[in-house]
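FORM 7B: Structural annotation worksheet

SECTION A. Query
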Amino acid sequence: MPEQKTENKREEKIRRPVKEWPGRLRASLFVAALITLIASLIVVLKNDLVNKKIDETQNALLDFIGKEGFGLDDIVISGRERTAIEDIDKIVALKRGDNILRVDVAKLKQNLETLPWIRDVKISRSFFPNVLQIEIEEKEVLAIWQLNERFYPIDMDGYVIEADYRPVKPILLIVGAGAAENIIPFLKMVAEISPQYVERIKVANYISKRRWNIILDDIRDGITVKLPAENVDQAWKKLLKLDTEQGILKRKLTFIDLRLEDKVTVKLRKSKTVQRKSEQKI
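SECTION B. Predicted structure
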């Protein structure tokens, strides 16, 4: 009997620490986490108060300096042609006497560049007199994009300009879905091979989002060049060779079909006399 009691006591001494240490560990971790959280909150609140005080001091200093000779005297805007001055005024929203030091140049630049015709803006300040200089670079129109019987101006990067536009001189017309985003690579290819031919392209029709039909020299009476979906550069080089050696683009043709690698198909344009006779027969 005494031996059994001794064994029971020994078992209790062995088992007790196994049951208690996980609980103690969890409690210690909880306390440590709580202390860390409280310390972090104190640091954050302290930093916020310090930052707030710094901002208040800075604003007070700017207001004082502004009253002592840094009021806005004038705003000079250059480079504007298509952008309405009213739209610029709404964004700038400054008046004579405003503190020029308080103008957020970066934010003002960002807001102005949201206007449809503006490509880039440079803003600088000069003092005594205190002038805000706004230098605008507007987008240039590369082409008019016809899609679903509507017309959109396209800039030099191939993006639609969300604004009304009426061309004052002949301009490249591109047609079809996908034409706007694919016209830049095509024109670069033409410029690299034959820069003198770029200006001769009057219409670029993107067919089935795969390939181009190009009208040269005249929208109504020009020659349509049908290009393949692949190896466009090789087809264009073939056209140049035919023009150099045989003067193919000087002939009275309706179209030149270059879609097949080993074959060139052309169609003669009917003379006005033959065309009138055909119309009379009809």
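SECTION C. Observations
Residues 1-21, 273-282 have pLDDT under 50 and may be disordered. Residues 177 and 208 are 8 Å apart (CA to CA).

SECTION D. Sign-off
Analyst initials: ____
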